[in-house]
Amino acid sequence: METVSSSNALYLPGSKANLGNKLHRKAPRRLVLQVKRSARASVEPVAKPRTELPALKAAVIVPGFLYGARDFQPLAEALTALGIPTAVVPMPFWHWIPCLGGRSMRPILERIDHTVRHMAAATSTPQAPLAVPRIGYSLLDLIDDFRNNPGGVAEVGGSAEPDNFPLWEPKGTFQQGAELDDMQGRVALIGHSAGGWISRIYLSQRKYGGKAYHGSQLVHSLVTLGAPHGEADGIAFANVGWAARDPLPPSVGGLP
């Protein structure tokens, strides 16, 4: 499989479903190399903010559009067996429904943040994929999110442009993670398809839908698998264009 390096991230084009079953024999060694090089780079004697957390050999997988955690469990198990404890964002495929039609990705960003915070606070190194607390999300929550999630062709909230999305809080019950001062270190993000460019929104310092996630404080590298990163016409790609507007933060690396 060819690799294409863009910005500071590693992009592996041509990924096919089901990634969890089809890539877990080939991709892990490349991902291991990515995380290990990033971890080594974090201890080089270069000027860094005193508050920057160390890089951990741990990873979070963000499923692609209309995929769920189950699809990527084999990949998480393969990476964990190779020495990188890995968790998949704990969501079934139907959690994507409120985001259909180019609407805000805040529901998915909340799930990424939930997972990253629990992984970055973990102190153990188990021999099985790390379990992250489940997210409470009911059918009524989904209906409420589908009605109120901004953007899309219906211009819910008044606009289809991400810069104009109003502040809105997605539904769901998220077990509170540790505060930044209690984190053990930064993890790697592995995003499949839409999970790749959504991860870039998570890393951004800019407000998206009224909230900036500042994910670079808890992430040391980003690997994307078959993710689109270029701008294109159409409301469905408005969010991709927003994500592509900024390069990766300097503290977030990848393969050269």
Annotate the secondary structure layout.
Blueprint: E1 4-6, E2 9-12, H1 19-22, H2 27-41, E3 55-62, H3 73-81, E4 86-88, H4 106-120, H5 139-148, E5 186-192, H6 194-203, E6 219-225, H7 238-244
Parallel strand pairs: 2-6, 3-4, 3-5, 5-6
Antiparallel strand pairs: 1-2
Helix pairs in contact: 4-6, 6-7
Word description of this protein:
Strands 1-2-6-5-3-4 form a six-stranded mixed sheet. It has helices at about 20, 25-40, 75-80, 105-120, 140-150, 195-205, 240-245; strands spanning about 5, 10, 55-60, 85-90, 185-190, 220-225. The two termini are about 15 Å apart. The chain is of the alpha/beta class and about 260 residues long. The protein is built from seven helices and six strands.
Keywords:
disordered N terminus, six-stranded mixed beta sheet, alpha/beta, 6 strands, 256 residues, 7 helices
In short:
The chain is of the alpha/beta class. Helices cover 27% and strands 12% of the residues. It contains 7 helices and 6 strands.
In oligomeric terms, what are we looking at? single chain
Q: How much strand content do the residues show? A: 5-15%
Strand line-up of the largest beta sheet: 1-2-6-5-3-4
Class computed from helices, strands and strand pairing: alpha/beta
- SS field, number of helical segments: 7
Described by the principal axes of the CA atoms, the overall outline is globular
Largest sheet: 6 strands, mixed
List the secondary-structure elements in sequence, H or E: EEHHEHEHHEHEH
How would you state the average pLDDT, rounded?
81
Q: Roughly how many Å apart are the termini?
A: 17 Å
Low-confidence stretches: 1-20, 41-50
How many β-strand runs? 6
Range of helix content: 25-40%
